[in-house]
Design brief:
The protein is of the alpha/beta class. Helix content is 49%, strand content 15%.
Length: 247
């Protein structure tokens, strides 16, 4: 698959910015959506200066589902038909705080699951009518099994992963590919308060893996690759043993 025109949502995140840079280096036209117009302008100016590509922008709140269809209509009118739409939005909640306050849990599900699902519904219909393209979203390895250290985050990402799997099954016969991206630890502002170790990957590495997965029509990407084996082992631990572990 050749990516000529890409839409990136959550475009101010570290991974999204690196995907945008790597695509721009290939000459891809970019449409960037994010909450901060000022940050979007800085990112776009850098991409235009360094790579000479077309970059379209829109301030956008993924958590407001009423904005989704109108924003997509404007983007297609401005920049043309998309080959790729990539959703990068996510937040890492304070698990302890969430255990004491359902309102925090609800907000995390809106940010990590329901907002993306709303936009995926709109994008899925768009790509189905187009008869081609790739729809991708960043989930997480945390969604593979509920663990006491981050089960609110993990549950929200598990819901997103299951929705993506269903869309992949639905849209396969329509010529549309759906990619579920499951990063492990990535060295970004979202993980700034976590102690860094050997399992952490750079945004540059994750972005390269994402682009290769889109081009290769991979269904589920674990990035870096070793997380597939790690999560397989974790999933295979019997529940009577697993529930006693401090994870």
């Amino acid at each position: 698959m050749i990516i000529k025109n890409a839409l990136i949502i959550g475009a101010t995140s570290a991974i999204a910015q690196e995907v945008a840079r790597q695509l721009a280096a290939r000459g891809t036209t970019l449409t960037l959506w994010g909450r901060s117009p000022a940050r979007l302008e800085i990112i776009a100016a850098d991409l235009r200066t360094k790579y000479g590509v077309k970059v379209f922008l829109e301030a956008f709140d993924l958590n407001n589902s009423s904005l989704h269809q109108p924003a997509l209509d404007r983007a297609v009118t401005a920049g043309g038909a998309f080959d790729l739409a990539l959703i990068c939005q996510g937040s890492l909640p304070n698990q302890s705080a969430c255990e004491k306050d359902y309102q925090l849990v609800e907000q995390e599900f809106i940010t990590n699951c329901l907002g993306p699902i709303s936009l995926l519904t709109v994008l899925g219909n768009y790509f189905e009518s187009q008869g081609q393209g790739c729809l991708a979203a960043i989930s997480s390895v945390a969604g593979d099994r509920g663990r006491q250290s981050n089960y609110v985050y993990g549950a929200s990402k598990a819901g997103l992963s299951t929705f993506l799997a269903g869309m992949r099954n639905r849209l396969y016969s329509k010529g549309v590919h759906v990619l579920t991206i499951k990063p492990g630890f990535v060295d970004t502002p979202m993980t700034a308060n976590l102690k860094k170790g050997l399992l952490f990957a750079s945004p540059e590495k994750v972005a390269r893996d994402i682009i290769r997965a889109v081009e290769g029509r991979v269904c589920v990407l674990y990035t870096p690759w070793f997380w597939r084996s790690i999560m397989l082992i974790i999933r295979l631990i019997p529940e009577p043993i697993f529930r006693k572990l401090k994870m």
